[in-house]
Amino acid sequence: MTIPSEPIGSIPRPPALIAAIAERANGADPALDPLYEQAVRDTIERFEATGSPVVTDGEQRKYQNFWTYPVEGMPNTDPDGFRIPFSAGHTRRMPRLTGGPFRYARRADDYLDVALRHAHVPVKQAVISPSALSLMYPAAAIPGYPRQQFIDDLLTEHETEIRSCLRKGAHKVQVDFTEGRLALKIDPSGELLHSFIDLNNLALSRFSAAERARIGVHTCPGSDRDSTHSADIDYAQLLPSLFQLKVGNFYIALAGEADRAHVLEMVRRHMKQDQRIFIGVIAPIDPRIETAEEVRDRILEAAAYIPVGQLGTTDDCGFSPFADDTSTTRDTAFAKIRARVLGTALASKAIGGKT
Amino acid sequence: MNEERDEHEQLRSVTLENARSVFLARQRAEEELVRAKEELSAQSERLRVTLASIGDAVITTDTNGRVLSLNRVAQSLSGWTEQDALGQELAKVFRIVNEATRQPEQNPAEEALREGRVVGLANHTLLVARDGTETPIDHSAAPILDEEGRVHGVVLVFRSIADRKRSEAARLNSERELSDFFENASVGMHWVGPDGTVLRVNRAELNLLGYSRDEYVGHHIAEFHADQDVIEDILRRLTAGETIQDYPARMLGKDGSIKHVLIDSSVRWEDGRFVHTRSFTRDMTDRRRAEEAQARLASIVESSQDAIISKTLDSRILTWNAGAEYLFGYRAEEVIGQPITLIIPPERQDEERVILEQLRRGERVEHFETVRVSKSGRRIDVSLTISPIRDGAGRIIGASKIARDVTARKRAEQRLSVQNGVASVLAESANLVDAAPRILRSICESLDWQVGALWQVDEPQLALRCTDIFHVSSAPIPRFEAASREYAFERGVGLPGRIWATGVADWIPDVAQQDNFKRAAVAAAEGLHAALALPIILDSRVLGVMEFFTRAVLEPDQDLLAVMKSVGSHVGQFIERRRAEAALRDSEQRFRLMADAVPSIIWTAGPDGTITYANERWSEYTGLISDQNARGWSELMRHPADDERCVAAWTAALEQGSAYEVEARYRRYDGVYRWFVTRAVPLRRASSEIVQWFGTTTDIDDRKRAEHRTRFLADASAALTDLTDQESTLRKVAGLAVPDFADWCTVDLIEGADGSLRRLAVSHVDPAKVQLVRDLDRKYPSQRLEPRGVRHVVRTGEPEWAASIPDEMLVGLAEGEEHLSTLRSLGLRSYICVPLKSRGDVLGAITFVTAESGRTYGADDVRAAEDLSRRAVMAIENARLLASLREADRRKDEFLAMLSHELRNPLAPIRNAVQIFRAKGSPVPELQWATELIDRQLHHMTRMVDDLLDVSRITQGKVELRKETVELATIVSSAVEASRPLIAKWGHDLTVTIPPRPIHLEVDPTRLTQMVSNLLNNAAKYTGHGGRIALTAEQEGGEVVIRVKDNGIGIPPEMLTGVFDLFTQVDRSVERAEGGLGIGLTLVRRLAEMHGGSVAAHSEGTGRGSEFVLRLPVGGAFRRAARKGTNDDQVQAPPVPLRILVVDDNLDAADSLGMVLRMMGHDVDTAHDGLEAMGAATAFRPDVILLDIGLPKLDGYQVARRIREQDGGAEIVLVALTGWGQEEDRHRSNEAGFDLHMTKPVDFKALQKLLVGVHAGSERPRETPGNAR
């Protein structure tokens, strides 16, 4: 029995690339292209060297973060949108939409093109959820561009992005939905969360069952500079709603959770038969590198709750969702990924005698 | 915080606003879904109506193949009403069989369900209706898929094809009739489409042209016409509406032939549309061919170079072609009507009669060769072919005659016959004497001449003499032959002499008319006329002359002259070749004589390496006759061990054509192998092609034996330098002797005072043989006094040598027949036995014996054996000396260990006493001073004892480094701290310089601190009061270098190298009370070496200070050493009452330690032997027992084991307190159940720390605190 294992997405950018981006006002400056190209090639080479059966481009070209990459540089935005507070004390700010129409400045399948050129194993692509981008529309309506129109445009853009990735051969398309727990933190009543789930399901309804089997949702309490924005929110409040999302795959942060058994029990109770649960066995914000045996034990623990046929492993989060985050080195990130791969193999062997 | 709350509130607000839009969007999506469902429903209804009204039958099923719907047509064809059919299995409603086989058909709906794909049409199927009627149908089935590709059922569509089948049958019948007519017509037929493409063709036309149907149909008709303008004209006319008749055309057969045809053709028009032509093709080729043949024949006859003549049966000439005019010189008008005998020579007139008789019988005369005469009278060799000519009724009315001039061919055959005849004779003849008469005969017969003569140069007399003469039997020439043999012509005289002089062949038409032909008269008398003479020539040198004569008078034939010249040259080469061969035979004979005289084996081989010759030496050496196994002689006789090497070298030489040289052993006739060097070189032609190999194989056995002997001695000498024990040394010698020096080697040693021998070693390349000899020794342990052999050598102390071992010697040695048989089977040949003598005493003997190698020992070998014996004895003596030194060293180490133990025991109570003094305190300054003095001296002495023990342990390899990564600064700091009291005491100025950045070392920190401290102490001790000491440390490449420099007494140059040796001191003057034992620097050097480093001393001499340089490799790991245990500084000693039992047979030690512990506030009991300790442990129930090891009655180990076995014994902390501090002592105490091992005198700080830990209930102490290491 082989347990599938996939990464989340981001890998810390090479310091030279971070410095070069910082020197320029615009991270999309074509002069940076050789550095991006080199960073993607190196990332994929090192990713493949870990033995990971599925790789990503490390989101090297998402030069701001995993959240705002499609809207960076849009002329109809202002930089003074909402702030996301992190436990380390810092915040990250969203852009604000100032006018219509809403069109992505770039889509993730552009990144996928480059990654597929270098990779020798399946490539996974992460995209941002429509619920995250919906926060760009301000509380007060934009004259001449009604909110309803914005929601329609947003869904169309999101659908187009996912379809393009699937068509170009992405192994999986992962919708980053880290605002789930944040929504509960902001609104314990769950109303916000349900609104997010509704919006995302509206988009996911546009795909067939076969397509949804290649789409997944990633949830975590956020990760930036070794800190989180909503780790204090209990999964118990999130998971019942999360499993209502119309996707075939769930990437759930678990390694960093204080009470894993509790979370696993919640998963067991709410998961459905056609869903595969990729549990997080690596904690990117923990500077210590997990051992393969440690990872194996976490998987065996999870296997007591989740049928092995529906079980997978992943990292709790990307290793650098925000491009300027240098709290984790590339070496550490790849060492942790290697531990995930080896640990998963050990667990597969322990469970089924095959790796 | 408020700001964050506001932010969250806004975020919530936006999301909820969005949620309303999302709700609307979802509502819209749901509305769209409803609309889509309604649309679907409407579509379904439309579909249902459509299905009902379409002409095809349609059945739908669910995934289980049960009927869901059945339209009107389906009901009609199947005979099932929808009501009856619904829910039924499809196979029941839709029953189908194969039209041809009548077997049930695979239901397409089932396949479509199973495969999830459309199953295509079939048109060979009969639908069996419910009432049994059958309808031919075609059908297809398609799966009903949802948007995700899941199968929900199947749609089966079929229709009746009965009408279509009927019309198809009628059409096929009509077509078949037309086809029969078309295909079987005897005239060629084809149809051509409006674009000129052949649409159809019948068999007759294909047969006419030779094409297959595929090669014809589909191609443009023009491809089959030879004349493109013709076919274009035909097509143009037809297209214009004309009908073509008897149109002549030339068509192309597949084999390239032209077919003459007449074409009739018209077009089939339908509604004004050109459908196709209908063309008939009649073959006219045979008629045309006959006409052409006639014309061609006439042309051939006229243009033939052969004479073609026809004549009547009465031999009158009827026709006479141009060829006949040319050959015979008569024009046609001259000979037509004349008799044919006109051209027949008189002597052959009868031929015409015979020919006419044959013709009348209707026979044909083929290739009859004869002679005819031209108008000019020239005789012509002709080949005749004569055939009868018949009239229309078949009667023979005349003959046609074809005459071909074969004169040239006849002459060519004659010349070829001459050449072949001569060549054949030359090939078969051994010399000219044999060849000459046969050559003369052959040429005469070939030329049809009558006489031939051979003249050879008589060198001494410089004249030509006739040596052979031949004549045909029908032409006797006694006088001419006699005259020829009588004459001797000088150069230039007569016909032979002239040819000799000029070297050119000559022809005389009639010698009878020749003035200067000396034998003209006899020639004329015997009817000889024409003469031909030719030189026998080689490289322009005339070796002889041949003459030929004929009765006819003949003009010179230049062609024949040229041929004869070539014959002369061939004969010349033959003579030369035979002479060369004779010379070669002579040369070879000389070579063989010379080769047989050479001491080496001389041989030759062909280019492929096959031996072709070997001289007499080969036979003498191998005992084989010279040609016996000649091809593979070297392989047969070569030593198997040398085979691979020799074959590889020989193969390489053959491949590269390079010189070959290799040394190998070859077996002599008596089975002995000797060493030879074989050298071979290739002999080449001018073209560099290898003709043969020339080789020599030379005996180098003596040289090789000397080399082996020398090498054996060298190897043995090298091996003997390893100073091991006596027996190992001698076994090694025995092993080295085989096989280079001996086939067998034995070593026997004297054992016991009676001089009995023990066989120490037996050596042979074959372990089985070694075992055999061992078995013999056991079976026949003779101790007899023999006149020869090992016992004799041992007894006399003199060597023995036998170049060959006579059988009687074996008989003398054997203890019976079986023993003798075994000894004989060993094939022993030669032996040397030399005594092993040390300072006049005989220790034993070494015996060398040869057997299978066949070698014989000589005087040189005896000298080598004696030399080896001396070296072996010397090595044995050295080994013994080394062993005694080692033993002395071991005893010294044991003594040092014992000494340190014994010194420690008295130190323990002294330290206890000092501790008591301190604890109690004394107001008397002198007592305080005395206490401190005792304490200092006690520390000093303890350290000396520790150093002594360390040296002993390091020397015995019992110290194990406990390496970890530490910073250099930490080490230096600790060392300085340790040495500071001594430095302060002497009032020295110490400066320490270390790099600012951390340097990490992978070392045992305790040992490195000890090294640096020792160097500092050394500097302090050997520097006068108020001196300067500088410690510097720095990194140089991969090393850290620590220098300790002082301005003290320095080191004299002669002591620089020995300063690190044990117990070495530069200055032993009494003033240097701190001088110690001189082991500090020894420790530094040995510990440095154990760390992979070094230490060196430098001094410019006495009074000029010293510098010690310690070098250590920098550690690769940069992790910080994990901190272990607790910081000593943090150890506090709260007054914690414990129950402590002190056990020591030294009463002072036990009591003083007890007193110290009581002063610490503990409850203490003491015991002085093992049994007493057991009793006290039971009665007193201590928390801790400090237990000496060396106790009366029961030693400490036994006490510990027993206490552990008692109830509650496991809870007691057992501490071994002993003078024994080596690793094995710690190991033993650990095994006995001790928790801790401490050495005397006890370190009170460490003891205090231990007791605090026990009181605190911490884990049982396993780490060794303080001096517990």
Describe the structure.
With 355 residues, chain A is α/β, with parallel strands linked by helices. In chain A, the strands form 3 sheets. A 6-stranded parallel sheet of chain A has the order 5-6-7-8-9-10. In chain A, strands 1-4 form a two-stranded antiparallel sheet. A two-stranded antiparallel sheet of chain A has the order 2-3. In chain A, strand 2 and strand 3 form a beta hairpin. The radius of gyration of chain A is 19 Å and the shape is globular. Chain B is α+β, with helices and mostly antiparallel strands and 1269 residues long. Chain B is 44% helix and 25% strand. Chain B contains 38 helices and 44 strands. In chain B, a hairpin with a 5-residue loop joins strand 1 and strand 2. Chains A and B meet through helix 5, helix 6 and helix 7 of A and helix 1 of B.
What is the fold's blueprint, element by element?
The complex is a heterodimer of chains A (355) and B (1269).
Chain A: H1 15-23, H2 33-49, E1 77-78, E2 83-85, E3 91-93, E4 96-97, H3 108-118, E5 125-128, H4 130-133, H5 147-168, E6 173-176, H6 179-186, H7 191-204, H8 209-212, E7 215-219, H9 235-242, E8 249-252, H10 260-270, E9 276-282, H11 292-303, E10 311-315, H12 330-352
Parallel strand pairs in A: 5-6, 6-7, 7-8, 8-9, 9-10
Antiparallel strand pairs in A: 1-4, 2-3
Helix pairs in contact in A: 3-5, 5-7, 6-7, 9-10, 11-12
Chain B: H1 2-53, E1 57-61, E2 67-70, H2 72-78, H3 82-85, H4 90-93, E3 95-98, H5 108-115, E4 119-128, E5 134-145, E6 151-160, H6 162-184, E7 188-192, E8 198-201, H7 203-209, H8 213-216, H9 228-239, E9 244-252, E10 258-270, E11 273-283, H10 285-303, E12 307-312, E13 317-320, H11 322-328, H12 332-335, H13 350-360, E14 365-373, E15 379-390, E16 396-405, H14 407-428, H15 432-447, E17 451-458, E18 463-471, H16 478-486, E19 488-489, H17 494-502, E20 506-508, H18 520-525, E21 530-538, E22 541-550, H19 558-597, E23 601-605, E24 611-614, H20 616-622, H21 633-637, H22 640-656, E25 660-667, E26 673-684, E27 690-699, H23 701-720, H24 726-737, E28 744-751, E29 756-763, H25 767-779, H26 790-796, E30 800-802, H27 807-813, H28 817-825, E31 830-838, E32 841-850, H29 859-920, H30 925-955, E33 964-967, H31 968-985, E34 989-993, E35 1000-1003, H32 1005-1021, E36 1028-1036, E37 1039-1046, H33 1080-1090, E38 1094-1099, E39 1106-1113, E40 1139-1143, H34 1147-1159, E41 1163-1167, H35 1170-1180, E42 1184-1187, H36 1196-1205, E43 1213-1218, H37 1223-1232, ...
Parallel strand pairs in B: 34-36, 40-41, 40-42, 42-43, 43-44
Antiparallel strand pairs in B: 1-2, 1-6, 3-4, 4-5, 5-6, 7-8, 7-11, 9-10, 10-11, 12-13, 12-16, 14-15, 15-16, 17-18, 17-22, 18-19, 20-21, 21-22, 23-24, 23-27, 25-26, 26-27, 28-29, 28-32, 30-31, 31-32, 33-35, 36-37, 37-39, 38-39
Helix pairs in contact in B: 14-15, 14-19, 23-24, 23-29, 24-29, 29-30, 29-34, 30-33, 31-32, 32-33, 35-36
